[in-house]
Amino acid sequence: MRVPMSSPDLSDLERQAVMQVLHTPTLSMGEQIEAFEAAFCRYLGAKHAIGVNSGTAALHLCLLAAGIGPDDWVLTTPFSFVASTNVILYVNALPIFVDVEPTTGNIDLTQAAQAIQDLIEGGTAARRWLPRRGVGRRKGQLKAILGIDVFGQPADWDTLRALAAPYGLKLIEDSCEALGAEYKGRKVGLLGDYGTFGFYPNKQITTGEGGMIVTNDDEGASLMRALRNQGRAPGDTWLQHTYLGYNYRLDELSAALGLAQMQRLEELLRRREQVAAWYNQRLQNIPGVEIPYIASQTTRMSWFVYVIRLAPGIDRAGVASRLAERGIPVRPYFLPIHLQPYMQTRFGYRQGDFPVTEDLGERGLALPFSGVMSEDQVDYVCDALRQVL
């Protein structure tokens, strides 16, 4: 048996929606993107939803709307997909890393609180949180926290907001992996000032490529709508551009696909929950395997990937190789951002700088996962893993 790493969950509803757009003359900036955005507003209770062509673009625009620019500091973590750090670099700001919790992989709140206090105080206290090089000559200032809902599990947003509020820090929620997740009974996305979602084919819903920004900030939403469309502000004519903008639009075909997926969202989430439950049941008693941890404040996990952790000392590369021989692809998840070559070159990061992130990066293994996996496929993966171990 061969098991795909991930597969989108598509039906005739999505195929028909895309075909209908192909029978119209409007392939961009039409009714589909407006309807897709409206569906998000209804689902989350948001005032504004802004569709863009990737989750990365969504994060980038949020930083711009938050007023983040050269020499500003943004607190975040190195246990994430690289986009959450790259967008900080796009605006010539400085990512300030703190380590993560060993259970969830989300931001360590104790370290975050200390880092905020030290960075605001400045001087020697602040320097312990700064990278070895690449800080810049001008004195920076902490402006925002960019938190990540890792693998579909919300960070502790109430605590992050309490840490941010006294200093007026903007709170940006990277929910690109977490559509449908709930924190203390509240859906993710509006737990910060700006929230983002991504729709790559392995996500809870897909548009092929695409993303969405949600916010209740009228001024920020207006700016981001202009910036995604080459900086064209309300009142500008076709070739007028008030701002330096970007081509971050989401096309009509992608929006139609996303709108159809939103109509099936609960079904898609439940299917993923079922596959995760099969995995949990079969893996919980296998020696050397640690199944995903669900925090008490996570009232609904939204399963993006299924990542186990192997016990220290187990040869992960060897396990992956032997599973691949059985037709089962697996992936390390995540590789720490601070140890990516370009980050080491630019900022001087080294092994040992963020030990929890590095430990999770060394032991994490993403198993094949999607809402269209069968129970037989899950059985096959789990039986093979047990044999290999």
From TrEMBL:
Keyword terms of this UniProt record: Pyridoxal phosphate
Pfam families found in the cross-reference section: DegT_DnrJ_EryC1 (PF01041)
InterPro entries: DegT/StrS_aminotransferase, PyrdxlP-dep_Trfase, PyrdxlP-dep_Trfase_major, PyrdxlP-dep_Trfase_small
Keyword Isomerase annotated: no
Modification N6-(pyridoxal phosphate)lysine, positions: 203
GO terms classed as biological process: polysaccharide biosynthetic process
One of the record's GO molecular function terms: pyridoxal phosphate binding
Superkingdom, taxonomy of origin: Bacteria
CDD domains: AHBA_syn
Recorded coiled-coil stretches: none
Residue positions of the active site: 203 (proton acceptor)
Family (UniProt): Belongs to the DegT/DnrJ/EryC1 family.
Listed name of the protein: Polysaccharide biosynthesis protein
